[in-house]
Amino acid sequence: MNKNTVKIKEIEIGKGFCVIGGPCAIESEKQLFETAKKIKDNIDILRGGAFKPRTSPESFQGLKEKGIKILKKVSEKLNIPTVTEVMNTSDVELVSKYADMLQIGARNMQNYPLLCEAGKSKKPVLLKRHFGAKIKELLSAAGYILKEGNEKIVLCERGIRTFEDSLRFTLDFAGALFLQRNSKFPVIIDPSHATGNSDLISPLFKASKAAGLDGVMVEVHIAPREAKSDASQQLTPEQFNNIFKGHQ
Ligand code: PEP
Ligand code: MN
Fold first, then answer.
1. Is the dihedral of CA 190, 191, 195, 199 positive or negative?
2. Whole-structure pTM value
3. How far is the CA of 85 from the centre of ligand 1 (A)?
4. Which residues lie below 8 Å from residue 28, measured CB to CB, with a gap of 6+?
5. Which of 25, 56, 186, 202 maximizes the CB count within 10 A of its CB?
6. Does the beta carbon of 129 sit less than 6 angstroms from any atom of ligand 1?
């Protein structure tokens, strides 16, 4: 299968192994800047959520527009490209203006108006698999973006729900490999959300690189225990750097 690569500034996803890192949520300029500054040399793309899809309405929902602006500021200061989630069709324009890549999260994988809007934006899109979706359904979702003339799609396996509950989700590693062989899109994994366990990031990174996947997305927080979301799965910058130093 002829493979697409997705260019984001000087980065080309699908060529070499891409590492996306950063906090689950943008909590303040200081938190994002300090985290990004420490891991900058070992990431290709900085992540950080401003619009957060949370299971409970009582949980931190993100800084929204203020967060997107912080992301842009930090990106410019450190000269690093960014990816961030967009949850609403009405926010696609705003997020496209401030970020280099749009993330469509697991919960919105089948939000067809959002997929179309992301397609129309012509921005690179990181499309995450819903935890209850088949690979075929993920590919159909990608088809909505493609149909609008946007080929800049990267797919992400982030764990599915099975009977197994020792970890947060079940990482469908074989599924990710199958997807990579049976689609033209680069495929990455998100071991942070898949496992909910920071101890498993290092071996899963090594496994994904050895298996020839196109990259990983990993959560990193300046002080994980104080994080406003996903505290147990985020690495400290020091832990992150120990795992990822020299990955290129
Ligand atoms: C995220 O990456 O910030 C996220 C919310 O992940 P997912 O959509 O896979 O749950
Ligand atoms: Mn998270």
1. negative
2. 0.98
3. 8
4. 63, 70
5. 25
6. no
Q: Ligand 1: which residue has its CA nearest to atom 9?
A: 106
Distance between Cα 78 and ligand 2 center (Å): 22
d(CA 130, CA 128): 6
Question: Is the distance from CB of 36 to CB of 46 less than 8 angstroms?
Answer: yes
CA distance 22 to 217: 9
Cα–Cα separations (whole angstroms), residue 177 to 149, 153, 205? 26, 16, 14
Q: Is the CB of 106 under 6 A from ligand 1?
A: yes
Ligand 2 centre distance from Cα of residue 1 (Å): 32
Q: Which residue has the tokens 């949370």?
A: 54
User: CA dihedral in degrees (25, 161, 191, 103; nearest 10)?
Assistant: -50
Rounded Cα–Cα distance for residues 207 and 189 (Å):
11
Three-class secondary structure of residue 117 per DSSP? helix
Retrieve residue 23's tokens: 């906090």
From atom 6 of ligand 1, which residue's Cα is the shortest distance away? 105
- List pLDDT tens digits, range 17-63: 999 999 999 999 999 999 999 999 999 999 999 999 999 999 999 99
List pLDDT tens digits, range 61-110.
999 999 999 999 999 999 999 999 999 999 999 999 999 999 999 999 99
Q: How far are the Cα atoms of 32, 71, 106, 181, 233 from residue 8, in angstroms, in the given order? A: 20, 16, 22, 23, 27
For the CA of 25, the closest atom of ligand 1 is 3
The 10 Å Cβ neighbour count of residue 131 is: 19
